[in-house]
Structure formats: C-alpha cells, structure tokens
Amino acid sequence: MIKLLVIDDEQLILECFRYAFPNPQYELITATNAADGLALFRVKSPDVVLADIRLPDVSGLDLFQQFQKADARVPVILMTGQGTADTAIHAMQAGAFEYILKPFGPETLLPLVQSAAKTSRLMRTPAKIPTDHPADTSGDLLIGHCPAMQEVYRAIGRVASQNVTVLILGESGTGKEVIARAIYNYSQRAQKTFLAINCAAIPENLLESELFGHEKGSFSGADRKRIGRFEQCSGGTLFMDEIGDMTPLTQTKVLRVLQDQQFERVGGAESIRTDVRLIGATNPDLKAMIENGDFRGDLFYRLNVYTITLPPLRDRGDGVELLAEHFCRLFARDLGKEITGIAPETIDQLKAYRWPGNVRELQSVIKHALLLSTGPVLVPAFLPETVRGSQRRLESHDVDDSYSEPTPMRAATPQVAGHHDESAPATTHWSQFVEERLIAGSESIYDEAQQLMDRQLIPLVLQHAKGNQLQAAKLLGVSRATLRAKCKQYGITVDKVVDVSDS
Questions:
Q1: What range defines the domain where residue 494 resides?
Q2: Is there a single domain that holds both residue 287 and residue 147?
Q3: What pLDDT is attached to residue 463?
Q4: What stretches of 219-348 adopt beta strand conformation (E)?
C-alpha cells in the first residue's frame, strides 16, 4: 500500500484524488492547508506528498522547505497553475521530485506517483549488511557467507563513508541496486536524496534531458523547463544503472560533472553547479566497449575510482538457500501465508538450477511457489516447471552441479555466448509461460515475454548470419544499434568462429 498525502484547498481536486487512488492499493490522507498538512506529514509518515503551490496560509515553497527539514527523503510533487510554474521550478532545484500543471488527468498522475513511491522506497527502506544470518525480514538484506560475498561486504564498509565514485559490476539481477543503496545507507549522505536511473530503459534522445534537464523550447516537445537528476539530487547520491548505454554526448557531459561538478541544461548556456555522489553499475564489459570505441576511456577511469564486483547467484555457495529462506519469510508475510519452512527436496532443486536471472529470478520463483502453496511447507510441486526440470536434466545426464563448457558448434558457426535463460526450451511453450506469470502475479508479462523471446531469437539469428551483426540486424528488422544494445542487455557476445577441424 502506497501512503499519499495530498494538500490542496480545492475540494474538487481532493475528490479527484479519492477517485484515482482508491483502497486497498493506496492510503489517501488529505489536508486543505499547510499547517494541517505538515502535522499529518510528521504523524503519518507518507510515502509521497502532493502539495498545491498556492495554499491559504503558507506558500507551497515554504511548506516544501518544512518537509525537507522534517524528512528530505520523502518525494514531494508540487501542483501548480501556469502562473506559478517558476516557483515550482525553484522548489525542484531545491530537491522537489516533480511539478505538474493543473489541470491534469490520471494518465499523468498515476505513473508520476508510482515513480515517486518507488524512489521513496529506495531511500527509506534500508539495504543492510548482516553480521550473521538474520531472523528478521525488515529492509533489503545482502545475504551469503561465501568468500566472494564477504569481500563485497568488506568493500561496502571501506567505501561507503568516503565521498568517491563507485562502479558496481555484475550480471543482470545480481542486486547491483541493493549494493548501491547499502553504500548510500552507510554514507554521510544517508539523510539526503537517493535517485536511481536506468540508462538502458530511457530512449537515447531523452536520457540527456533526464540527467541534466532542459530549457523550454530547446527541442520539439520541450514545452516547459525541466530540472534534471544531477541538479535535483545535489547533496545526495545518484545511482546510474546500465551506465554503458549512454550516447557519446551524454558520456562527455557526465565526465564533466565528475571532473568539475557542473553542467548545462539541454538548450541552456548557464553553468550549473551540483554536489552529487555518483554510483554507476554495468553488466557489459566497459573495457571491451572502450576498445570498440563505444565508451570513453577517460570516463571509465573517473567512474572506476573504486570497483565492487558482484558474483552471480550460481557462484554464491549457500546463497541460494539463505536467500530462498529470506524471501519465503518476506513474501509469506506479505501474501498472508502460514509457511514454516522449505522442504530439503525443494532446496536441492533450487540449488540445481542455474539461475540465469540471478536474485531477481529467485524472488519471482519463491513468490510463485508461495502463491501455489497449500500447506505449511514449500514442496517441489509448487516450483515452476522450469526449475523442477533443471533437477531432472541433471539426474538424467548423471552430472554434478558444477558448470561445464558447452559442446563446440559445427564448423564455421560463430560461437554465440551470453547469459541466456538455460532453463528455457528451444521452443517456448507460451501458454505455460503465461499461466506461470499470471499465477506469480506479474504485471509486466509483455516485457518478460519479449525478453525471453529476444534471449532465444537473437543468438539463433546471429548464428545463421555467421556472426555478422549488420546482416543479423537486417534479418531481425532492427537497426544495428538496437541489436548491439540488446546484445549488451542480455550479455550476448559473438566471440569467434569455431572450426572443429582445427582441433
């Protein structure tokens, strides 16, 4: 449940919010003046605040400053008419989350509130480093006793209090954002703003504006001034995931921020100073991208002041069991399930699986199993077929749990490697996939299906094209840049042509 505090003296606006944000998904708290709004803020601890700029007793800007003093981690969205937009912009420069112009509809409001609520959770839900296997389920925990994870914990302890740039490396789904938040939680900026941005999820032509802001009229559709994340996050911490997906121009501007802590908005000439601690994360190999001319070497060395490498879940030893037990306790509480434990046979099947989606995939599997569970213990029958099938494949081939290299392909076939979904069959049974995702309560089935198809389709087309990315892109009906971006996203590489006659 997302807790919203709305402060506006127009009853019609409050009624619109009651209609747009019903129970049980939202808890709506309302006030008609600044004094009542501030009192409710302190008592109710809302996740997101929406406040009108013009209030009968105090201006919205003054009220925002009071919110900042009380708890700067709560995102504040300001509502304004055309005549007061400049005031809202000043508030954004001081750290407000966003401002919206009246009148507005649910199509504008809903995604903005959801984005603010996610940001609120990132700042206010701690990412903890356990000293031992914890019994509680509060916060997001970094779990695992293997040497690689112990080194990660030590690295966070070394760098968190130092005001230096950190680069986090690891496969998709390994928990890079949790590491970034742990660094933030243990830093001297823990009471300031923490913002996260996924560079791969934002179109190239919009990423520069998202980071640095833009002036009104600077490009088509720029109907108002926008404050970017670097300006909005001044004094706090900015986490940039998939940092290798930036365009050369954006890389240049980020380099300048790291060097001088200043930049210009898109279409602007004013030099703006900021004070941001940057934490970057990437799955692709940035050194290889430098060699290919896709990433600036000087930016890499600025980012790479301190590096933390996250091991994949399959290499974390006891991590699968410990994380499964933690997620079981956490999700059982959220779903109202009375679960006392996980059967040993279930743990064996979880350990046998390769986890191409890493920790993120394990979360989905445990939630899926809990939704199907009918008793106090999670038994193997509740696991998705993909995970149960992994154990059967191991038994049928009489192999151990260690990784073995794939059999070489036929002559003159490019070796296409990457973090594919090893559990997925050659031909996906889409009806089973959709059924499992519906049971798991997924709200992004289209994206998940698209990703699954891409992981299977792209390597096959690259093999057919003998590693020629230009030809493969033509066959797929996409640009070469799109193909390269997807290969980066899924860790697909074309290493070389393997000719078995040479062996």
A1: 413-429+442-502
A2: yes
A3: 86
A4: 226-227, 237-241, 262-263, 272-273, 277-282, 306-309, 341-342
- State the total domains in the chain: 4
**468 falls within a domain:** yes
Q: Please give the pLDDT value at position 390.
A: 55
Q: What angle do CA 163, 165, 170 make, to 5 degrees?
A: 135
Strand partners, 80: 101
99 near 92, Cβ under 8 Å? Answer: yes
C-beta of residue 47 within 8 angstroms of C-beta of residue 41: no
Residue-wise pLDDT tens digits, 365-421: 999 899 888 888 999 989 988 888 655 444 444 433 333 333 333 333 445 554 444
Angle between helices 248-260 and 204-212 (to 10 degrees): 20
Question: Which CATH number do you get for residue 11?
Answer: 3.40.50.2300
Q: Tell me, what's the pLDDT at 281? A: 95
Confirm if 89 and 53 have CB atoms less than 8 A apart: no
CATH number assigned to the domain comprising residue 327: 1.10.8.60
Q: Is residue 176 part of a domain?
A: yes
The count of other CB atoms within 10 Å of the CB of residue 411 is 11
User: CA dihedral defined by 50, 53, 59, 64, rounded to 10 degrees?
Assistant: 40
